[in-house]
Amino acid sequence: QVQLQESGPGLVKPSQALSLTCTVSGGSISSTNSYWSWIRQPAGKGLEWIGRIHASGASNYTPSLKSRVTISVDTSKNQFSLNLSSATAADTGVYYCARDHYYDSYMDVWGKGTTVTVSS
Amino acid sequence: QSAVTQSPSASGTPGQRVSISCSGSSSNIGRNTVNWYQHLPGTAPKLLIYSNNQRPSGVPARFSGSKSGTSASLAISGLQSEDEADYYCAVWDDSLNGYIFGTGTQVTV
Question: Which residue among A28, A114, B23, B37 is least enclosed by CB atoms within 10 Å?
Fold first, then answer.
């Protein structure tokens, strides 16, 4: 079965970029019916969807973060990545990647999450 | 307005039925299907209900979902101690062109 695993620095300095990678195993990231999403839970808050990408490169982002977010895909490595520029303390939280069913619009497989702290 | 709201908390005793509401608008719940997630601290959110009322394999039948107009609800019947968690609804919003999560409901058993 498909499994997802987030990786990246657990500590990021303010104003620097927050960069994470999600590795997909047990299935192909090039699946036609799948998008690949990033979701986060800021400290003490609820879940927030960040954006998603398809293997074709098509992407969507949440408007509040769109100016700072880039999600990319590397089909050769079966990975997709998140880059959030100009990080602030408000970006501190747990970051999850997930598989997103394109036609039925739901996220069914999630990574375990990785904690990122933005602090000097 | 593209916000999806849930009651902050719900509670019940073992065996009781608990219902969680999710209120949206014409650009999200009014047009698209609703999904529900169970989230325990320190773990990955788990898909409980998709497409308004469908349960993924392995999710107990005591979890059920429904939708009417711009609102949706999740019901947990035969409440168990292991159901104590945060529950989120999520839906695609056509105005935002992205997903919106509800504000979350903390269920206490």
Answer: A28
In angstroms, the CA B30 to CA A45 distance is 25
What is the distance between the alpha carbons of residues A49 and B25, in angstroms, rounded to a whole number?
A: 18
pLDDT digits (tens, 9 = 90+) for A66-89: 999 999 999 999 999 999 999 999
- What's the pLDDT at B41? 82
Residue of B nearest to A94 (CA): B42
How close B55 gets to chain A, by Cα (Å)? Answer: 11
Q: Residue B1's pLDDT is what?
A: 55
Q: Which residues of B touch A46 (CB under 8 A)?
A: 86, 88, 101-104
Other CB atoms within a 10 A radius of the CB of residue B9 amount to 12
For A9-62, give the DSSP string. Answer: -SEE-TTSPEEEEEEEESS-TT-TTEEEEEEEEETTS--EEEEEEETTS-EEE-
What is the 3 state secondary structure string of B20-76? EEEECCCCCCCCCCEEEEEECCCCCCEEEEECCCECCCCCCCCEEEEEECCEEEEEE
